[in-house]
C-alpha cells in the first residue's frame, strides 16, 4: 500500500514522530487502545513532534478515556485533536462509505471534514468513542435478532 502511495507523491515516515514532523495533519487509525497509546506516547511517538499548527486525527477504535488521554497530551503541546472513530468496517472504508463520529477541536474538524461519506460532530472528546459504542451495540443486537 505504501509503495502505491509513494508512486502518487506521498513520502514515508519511518516513525510516528517522523510522520508528524512532515505533516500538518496526522491521521491514526489503529485497532485498539494499546496501539493508539503506543503510537502517541512511545519513543519516537507522535507526541515528540506535536506542536502548534499540527493536527492529530485519531480514527482508532478506542474507549473514551483513552481518547481523552491522547487529546490532553496533544493539546498540552499546542496541537489540535479530533477523535473520529468510524461506524463501519473494511469494505465501506474501501468504497469511501465510512460514517465518522467526530469530537474535539471544531476548527480541526471543519478542516478535515472531507473524510468519509458522512460525518457527525459530537462536541467534546469522548463523545465520539461513546457514540461508536452505542452504534456497535445496536448493530450487534440487529445481528443477533
Automatic annotation (TrEMBL):
Name used for this protein in its record: 6-phosphogluconate dehydrogenase NADP-binding domain-containing protein
GO MF, one annotated term: oxidoreductase activity, acting on the CH-OH group of donors, NAD or NADP as acceptor
Domain spans labelled 6-phosphogluconate dehydrogenase NADP-binding: 2-113
InterPro entries: 6PGDH_NADP-bd, HIBADH-related_NP60_sf, NAD(P)-bd_dom_sf
Lineage: Eukaryota, Viridiplantae, Streptophyta, Embryophyta, Tracheophyta
Organism: Anisodus tanguticus
Lineage top rank: taxon: Eukaryota
GO cellular component, one term: cytosol
Amino acid at each position: 500500500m505504501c509503495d502505491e502511495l509513494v508512486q502518487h507523491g506521498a513520502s514515508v515516515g519511518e516513525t510516528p514522530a517522523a510522520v508528524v514532523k512532515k505533516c500538518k495533519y496526522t491521521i491514526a487509525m489503529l485497532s485498539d487502545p494499546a496501539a493508539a497509546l503506543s503510537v502517541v506516547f512511545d519513543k519516537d511517538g507522535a507526541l515528540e513532534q506535536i506542536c502548534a499548527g499540527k493536527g492529530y486525527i485519531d480514527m482508532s477504535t478506542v474507549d473514551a478515556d483513552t481518547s481523552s488521554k491522547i487529546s490532553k497530551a496533544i493539546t498540552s503541546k499546542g496541537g489540535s485533536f479530533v477523535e473520529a472513530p468510524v461506524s463501519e468496517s473494511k469494505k465501506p472504508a474501501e468504497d469511501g462509505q465510512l460514517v465518522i463520529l467526530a469530537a474535539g477541536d471544531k476548527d480541526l474538524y471543519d478542516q478535515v471534514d472531507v473524510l468519509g461519506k458522512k460525518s457527525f460532530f459530537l462536541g467534546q472528546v469522548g463523545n465520539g468513542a461513546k457514540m461508536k459504542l452505542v452504534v456497535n451495540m445496536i448493530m450487534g443486537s440487529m445481528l443477533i435478532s
